[in-house]
Amino acid sequence: MSRVCQTSQKSVLVGNRVSHSHIRTKHRFLPNLQKKRFYSESRKKFYTLRVATSTMRTIDKLGLDAYVRKVGYTLK
Known about the structure:
Elements: E1 13-18, E2 24-29, E3 33-40, E4 45-52, H1 53-62, H2 64-71
Antiparallel strand pairs: 1-2, 3-4
């Protein structure tokens, strides 16, 4: 399973860890993905999505239906 948020499309970033002596080593920054059930008011149905925690906060604030309309994601 890929490490990509289903709604916001946040994915892995690549960068460097820089030590005190300024030696650079490659590092992968992973999104904080969680599996969570959301309820759709319009469809009267639960959906299980794998989303980033930052996306969860936005969905809690706006509601699932409003967030899906905003980003253009379609629920199946």
